Amino acid sequence: MTKTSEYMNQKEAMNYLGFSSVYALYEMVNNGLPYYVVGKSKRYSKRAIDEFMDQHKVSKMTTKETAVAK
User: Fold this and answer.
1) pLDDT in tens, 31-57
2) What are the angstrom distances between the C-alpha of 59 and each of 25, 46, 62, 65, 67?
3) How far apart are CA 66 and CA 54, in angstroms?
4) 6 near 46, Cβ under 8 Å?
5) Rounded to an integer, what distance in angstroms lies between the CA atom of residue 57 and that of residue 40?
6) What is the chain written as a DSSP string?
7) Is the pTM of this model over 0.85?
8) CA–CA distances in Å: residue 62 to residues 31, 55, 56, 67, 68
């Protein structure tokens, strides 16, 4: 396993996330994932990706199931 740098280009970020499509990464950016512009390229922070994923965690229980459980 190779060590991942804190800042990754698009391809490295997609690999880190296990995405095969760039559109999934674009969707994360549209939903608030920050990135850095360095020259003409974008860089994604490993820490920012991890935080984004934690903030967008979804419970298995739906709203309807939660109302029934109460």
Assistant:
1) 999 999 989 999 999 999 999 999 998
2) 22, 23, 7, 11, 14
3) 21
4) yes
5) 32
6) -PPPPSEE-HHHHHHHHT-S-HHHHHHHHHTT---EEETTEEEEEHHHHHHHHHHT---SS-HHHHHHH-
7) no
8) 21, 17, 15, 9, 10
